[in-house]
Amino acid sequence: MADELNLTTRPSLRDPVLITAFRGWNDGGQGASLAGGYLAKTWAAARFAEIEPEGFFDFQATRPHVSLVEGQTRRVEWPDNAFYHAHIPGLQRDAVLMLGIEPNVRWKTFTGLVTGLAEELGVGLVVTLGSLLADVPHTRPSPVTGGATDPELIEELGLQRSRYEGPTGIVGVLHDACARSGMPSISLWAAVPHYVSLAPSPRAALALCQRLGEILGTEIETQELDEASERYAEQVSEAVASDDETAAYVAELEQRAELIDDEQDLPSGDSLAAELTRFLREREADKDPPDAPSEQP
Fold first, then answer.
1. 206-246, pLDDT tens digit by residue?
2. What would the pLDDT profile of 49-93 be if each residue is shown by its tens digit?
3. Where are the domains of the chain?
4. Cα 194 to Cα 180: distance, rounded to the nearest angstrom
5. Rounded to two decimals, what is the model's pTM?
6. Helices (H), strands (E): how many in the chain?
7. CATH fold for the domain made of 2-285
8. DSSP label of 44
9. Exposed (0-12), middle (13-18) or buried (19+): which is 23, by Cβ within 10 Å?
10. Rounded CA gap, 159 and 1, in Å?
């Protein structure tokens, strides 16, 4: 199994935190993967390791892509799960970013490789980024809920202890692996409007980066995401305005959001999960496959 984790270098890190973002079931509206990619770009992260895909993917389910190099040479691009390291601006600590795709098989072994490398690098905290579909309007900032199992983290950072029971994704299995290895972990989930689930949501990515900054004790530069979020809201509003039924539904969601603002409280992780579970059941009844998880581990 050791040869399934390839290290090109072993970076020297200061008090590192591991931040993960997976495309797939845990990535409604691509909010998590957008946030992870943005952090890697903004922090000028350098790649130093990857997990070999051969033993973790069913290539008929998650197919490799073929591309042309300089319009001539064909190159096969395999599903990628890679590790990057970067300094976190404003802090005397570093980040290890794991960006990739939820594997199809051997999740126990996969997460064991992740936690094993984290232990070798001296990681003291794991933060997973996720995004899910929910009954929230696109006109407002994406709500973010944070969960943890460590009572001290819950108290210190204002997190929640999830009471979700049901199907889980690689994020849930990774948190279980962290707990078994005694490594503190935090799960952040941004809510994405389910009526625009196929559109990438920079607003969810923005919310995740902002909440991550609060947890780490620094401000993450988000100007590019701010601008993209404004364009996203404008484009979705134009599309919604063309359909009276959808426009009425969004207006109802906005009224709910105003009530929540008046109460100065955000939906709990469990209430978002319940809303999403209901939505997925409706989609299943219509024989439409779900494209986001119904959980917050």
1. 999 999 999 999 999 999 999 999 999 999 988 888 888 88
2. 999 999 999 999 999 999 888 777 788 999 999 999 999 999 999
3. 2-285
4. 34
5. 0.85
6. 8, 10
7. Rossmann fold (3.40.50)
8. T
9. buried
10. 35
